[in-house]
Specification:
Blueprint lengths: L9 H11 L4 E3 L8 E3 L20 H17 L18 E3 L17 E3 L1 H9 L6 H6 L16
Antiparallel strand pairs: 1-2, 3-4
């Protein structure tokens, strides 16, 4: 019994799999020594009518992206800045928002944009917040209750 799931032979395994597929049959007439399982034909694919192509980015988001690009060019006219993390000397690849849009932040707010290299941006974005005390100390992570409200000044 060297087959998976305790089958005594490959033939027994094939017959068991064929029994699990509705409409499958086993070709008993072949003399090649292999078990041939005939599967039922797949149902035809229905053609769906579409009225318009889906846009990957909304018009509002495209406008925000243009504003963000202009903001970055205004903040760093010389080109790419260095990573904001003091002990890192790499060029920045991404703009990180400490206060995410889900928490009330804006991607077009210059006060909410920090240049980070890809490794640090990934670390701040994907690691558990409990391990990122240094990111809170540098202001790279904020909670919505730390954000200024309405007309308040930070």
């Amino acid at each position: 019994m060297n087959h998976k799931k305790g089958y005594r032979s490959a033939e027994e395994a094939a017959r068991s799999k064929a029994a699990q597929v509705p409409g499958a049959t086993i070709d008993e007439n072949c003399r090649c020594g292999l078990v041939h399982v005939d599967l039922p034909a797949a149902p035809p694919v229905l053609a769906l009518k579409t009225r318009a192509r889906l846009r990957p980015v909304s018009a509002k988001r495209r406008q925000e992206n243009r504003e963000r690009k202009a903001m970055a060019a205004a903040l760093w006219p010389d080109g790419r800045p260095l990573c904001f993390v003091p002990w890192c000397g790499h060029w920045a690849d991404d703009l990180h928002e400490p206060l995410t849009r889900a928490r009330g932040g804006s991607i077009t707010d210059p006060e909410n944009a920090f240049p980070l290299c890809r490794p640090h941006h990934d670390e701040v974005t994907f690691r558990p917040e409990s391990e990122l005390g240094w990111a809170y100390d540098l202001g790279l992570l904020r909670h919505s209750w730390d954000a200024p409200r309405g007309g308040e000044v930070a």
